[in-house]
């Protein structure tokens, strides 16, 4: 999948294993979980810009939008109830990810994916059939539970199935699926908006059942990961599974590492209490800070509300949906770039480059909106060269995100946690992510109303901040087997002091399970 020239670091020779079709197919099916999330991110913004939908469920917004025809463009969609429709999903996902972390640990990754898919299916049926706001919101809440389960289990599943040298690429399969979901949703909205008698939004919402069915059926046939089978105590089955996914007969060395890691994880009764210990400080900080920053790049504002945003800036109805399709396509292409480069150039390089690119384009977008709408929000951008430049800048921004913070925001937290705190770390990652997604989703249309073009400068400021953070505090983790991650922290100028000597023992790096002396 990626070019040659991989040198395994440390004592990594025994980690080789052929990348076989079995692993790739398994990971592809698992990454369907991302389709669910992506479809949802993309669909809600398009639906909330459809007039029939607004007329039926949010008449006040519909009137407000008509009023704004000539006046202040910044405020025309400012409604808390409307944003609640979009963001209720993230609150539910937040709550569900804690439940999911328990299920993932006790019943395996596979069970979590099945649960997520089925609940999501019910939610999409309710949404498509909705007759009032309550049904809509209950449907969204169920979708949220599905998303919480999928986002908790899929990245962990992918990290555990993939051989270390292509772990980055396979894991980004999840992000890839999210972007494809977003693009498909944008295309669907573009199509359904053309439906004459105005039931197009029902089709948009109900089609979410398709990725849900794909994931549920897929998860049904998926094997569980060796780590997960071990965690539940079946040694032989786990060894067989490891042979199968590595395509090798002799997996003793790697198997022994898994067993040791699992033994030390078993001693840990409370991953939550555990992740609070000083020795896990780097993981705790990174798992909380990365998803927080990922949301404050401002990306979801573009994803959720792309059609609404383009409409606010005066693009016509189908022009705004079409523009969303264009930024959706850029998103997919740029994610492919990161799949090819992440295990080659490393995580850190992509973070720095993407950060710089987003910073520059956000400043430019803010300035253009300022130039065209000024402070009182009057003006338009219905066509001509300015609208094209704006769309191009947004695409540059989306591309920068899609090969840095997008995929890495999920990859890095899932690969830095040792097994004993992995499910807790991933739950923190998902919940922090959902919490900020909710906050920004809920506040965005009001922020646009009050901060005007300054909103883009606000996000640019955060992008600058997070790029500096990564530069100082994130060590490079490419090609490091998950079990050997501690040596990387130990060598770091800041985090080194938190990692006790005994966590890194043995030759090269550590072959011992972590935390023998605890």
TrEMBL record:
Keywords noted in UniProt: Membrane, Sugar transport, Symport, Transmembrane, Transmembrane helix, Transport
Subcellular location: Membrane
Gene3D superfamilies xref list: MFS general substrate transporter like domains
Pfam family, one: Sugar_tr
Major facilitator superfamily (MFS) profile domain: residues covered: 26-478
Its membrane topology: Multi-pass membrane protein
Name this protein carries in UniProt: Hexose transporter
Family of the protein in this entry: Belongs to the major facilitator superfamily. Sugar transporter (TC 2.A.1.1) family.
Signal peptide segment: none
InterPro entries to which the protein is assigned, alphabetical: MFS_dom (IPR020846), MFS_STP/MST-like_plant (IPR044778), MFS_sugar_transport-like (IPR005828), MFS_trans_sf (IPR036259), STP/PLT_plant (IPR045262), Sugar/inositol_transpt (IPR003663), Sugar_transporter_CS (IPR005829)
Spans traversing the lipid bilayer: 21-39, 81-104, 111-131, 170-188, 200-222, 318-342, 389-412, 424-448, 454-474
Primary localization: membrane
GO cellular component: membrane
Molecular function (Gene Ontology), one example: symporter activity
PANTHER family: SOLUTE CARRIER FAMILY 2, FACILITATED GLUCOSE TRANSPORTER, SUGAR TRANSPORT PROTEIN 11
